[in-house]
Amino acid sequence: MNDEEVIWRKLLIDGDGIGDDRRLNVLLKTYLKWCNTKYTDPLESQKAMEKMLVHLNLCEHAMKKSQAVSRMNVEEMLMYDNMSNEIDHNITNTKTEIDRAKEELKKAKTIRRNRMEYDVLAKLIIQHPPRTETAKRLDDLKDELQALKMTKNEINQKLDKRRKQLHVLMSALNDLTDSLDDSGSMSEDMSYETFDDEDLDILTRKDDVEEPMSD
Question: Which sequence ranges form a coiled-coil region, renumbered to this chain (predicted)?
């Protein structure tokens, strides 16, 4: 709908227009009529003037109202602009705070994970003895192992000595049995093959008794 159609509709509705346009048209017609009319009675002229003043006051009131509305609209636009800028600023600050909170949350998760790993390691460390105690225990075990080796060597030496002594003893017994002219039963009983463990134990204990005495 163009401007001509709007004006045409206004003229169809009201020959003088509507709203403020009507007031201005009525005021203009009244003024022209007052100017072109020659009043013989001053009261009628005064009434016409008062009527024009009423229309003029209405027009001024409408104009002031329109100015106030326009000024209010401008103020509202400024207020909305300020609100929009403030909202944009708040949005920017909120985004910044969200990013900062995300970083802090990430750091907190890292710290929490490190603490959990630390707790696990601490529990494992507590379950195991201290290094100094472990080292001392290891040294004690080494000393004990060395002592066992020495004891083993001593036992092996004693066993070798007993074997040599037994060999010498058996050789002497065999020589003795060979030199005897008695019956063959004695030679057979005292031979190397029939020499039992009890006799060996007696000889060994005898040798153990002789060693301290010799010392």
Answer: 84-165
